[in-house]
Amino acid sequence: MAEHTSSSITIEAAPADVMGVIADFARYPEWTGEVKEAEVLSTDDQGRAEQVRLVLDAGAIKDDHVLAYTWTGENEVSWSLVKSQMLRSLDGTYALTPVAGGERTEVTYRLAVDVKIPLLGMIKRKAEKVIIDRALAGLKKRVESAPKA
């Protein structure tokens, strides 16, 4: 990933619980404000999503795009853009690091977005930061409010 924006948050749950929420694309509309629809188009031999179609409505930005996912071990997932109406590229990663003996997880989200309409770099980075911060806050709330098994 070239220039990217990143941020981290600590979630009061084990990495497997956090990744379980990240990998459950069908439920994204329940906890991510911008995702209105999510459809897994293909899965790998372990049943993890390889391609996902997402319909976004973030006010001024509405898009229907497909992302390709790459799973690295149990604690990292990356994605890149396959097709989009508004985006030229979108590359992101969730990296999970166990903390406090595995009872907590530090989640680092990296994102690089390039839209088809011209934007100043400063505005683009600010938009990436807003997307990341909202996603991490939503993920934390979703994971920590989920019933424990």
TrEMBL record:
Superkingdom assignment: Bacteria
SUPFAM superfamilies: Bet v1-like
Transmembrane regions: none
One Pfam family per UniProt: Polyketide_cyc2
Name of the protein this chain belongs to: SRPBCC family protein
Taxonomy of the source species: Bacteria, Bacillati, Actinomycetota, Actinomycetes, Kitasatosporales
